[in-house]
């Protein structure tokens, strides 16, 4: 089957995923895969997870959609879980890019300023505002004119600090750049950016769309760095596969986001909220500790089995968000296909980086089995080259 009726915006692999159970997926040929993708960091609790399944099934029998013209205890409950005791409010959206649009709009409206500082190799989404803040010429190509007022600096570079001035509305960054190549922020640099934002009044927006919801072993990756953003955004893992996004900002910003200032028909959809509620209820400190412990096991195996291979230049990331940077001689696409044949699904990022985003519920034995498969495949392919 080759897809004929859909715009070819994705280069798709020639098989379809038809079912999933736990951390395994089955394709339309009946082949089984261990999943190191989680649907690009979405299905953190795997497939057919009983609690989430039950929460959504229950909601399916009640109401699927109501407009946002009525109160929703479900939305407010999810927002309360998300804010986790902080003095913050939530705006719901349907995707990561929409959550970042909301952050951009709120930052400009609240501060009355327009200038935004974003970073090279970032990714914030595909709609105009988010794309304009995405530091990747390939993603922006052909779409000019972009949203004005957005400037860029190099990530992890002290020179960026001089660009944080009182005329900025906001600085937006990922604490671990995902699509750009799985680059973790330098802890001291991130702290310096946060401090400079506080000193100048520029709002710090942290895009946690990929790094949040437990991916790095913390509820939000910024917590692992001791940062205090004014706004953060989440999406991918929030509802384990149902479309949702959220922008979380300080309570004092409510004056800029009053009735009529922003909205979306589907945002806060009941089915997505039921799933998000179950996800957040399960994102306990104990669960996060387990993720960090499992990540330690994985990083040890990476350093023992993968970092030493001649085709591997570096391994970057944090927690269960991992980038294996490959020698340009070995195209990542070839590695991904060889791993598929070996029964392991993986992703790419940046220029030539193999990206791993396994479900957070994956057990160490399965994580280690996947790493061993990667080591074998990389070894075989390197001997062939
Ligand atoms: C995926 C991603 C987005 C965009 O999310 P969509 O739901 O695809 O719009 C934004 N920011 C980051 C960091 C992402 O990884």
Structure description:
- With 385 residues, the chain is α/β, with parallel strands linked by helices.
- The protein folds into 2 domains: 17-49 and 285-384, Alpha-Beta Complex (Aspartate Aminotransferase, domain 1); 51-282, 3-Layer(aba) Sandwich (Aspartate Aminotransferase, domain 2), CATH 3.40.640.
- Helix content is 34%, strand content 19%.
- The chain contains 11 helices and 17 strands.
- It has helices at residues 38-41, 50-60, 73-83, 96-111, 128-132, 137-140, 187-200, 270-282, 285-306, 332-341, 364-384, and strands spanning 17-21, 24-27, 32-35, 88-93, 115-119, 150-153, 168-173, 176-177, 183-184, 203-207, 231-234, 245-250, 312-318, 321-326, 344-345, 347-349, 353-356.
- The structure holds pyridoxal-5'-phosphate.
- Pyridoxal-5'-phosphate binds at residues 95-97, 100, 123-125, 174, 178-179, 207, 209-210, 235-236.
Defining key terms:
single chain, 385 residues, alpha/beta, Aspartate Aminotransferase, domain 1, Aspartate Aminotransferase, domain 2, 7-stranded mixed sheet, 4-stranded mixed sheet, 17 strands, 34% helix, binds pyridoxal-5'-phosphate
Ligands: pyridoxal-5'-phosphate
DSSP strand count: 17
Mean pLDDT: 97
Widest β-sheet, arrangement of strands:
4-12-11-10-7-5-6
User: Alpha-carbon distance between the termini?
Assistant: 31 Å
CATH architecture of the largest domain: 3-Layer(aba) Sandwich
Largest sheet: 7 strands, mixed
CATH topology of the largest domain: Aspartate Aminotransferase, domain 2
Written as H for each helix and E for each strand, in order along the chain, the element string is: EEEHHHEHEHHEEEEHEEEHHEEHEEEH
Which radius of gyration do the C-alpha atoms yield? 21 Å
State the share of residues found in helices, binned by percent.
25-40%
Low-confidence stretches: none
β-sheet strand percentage:
15-25%
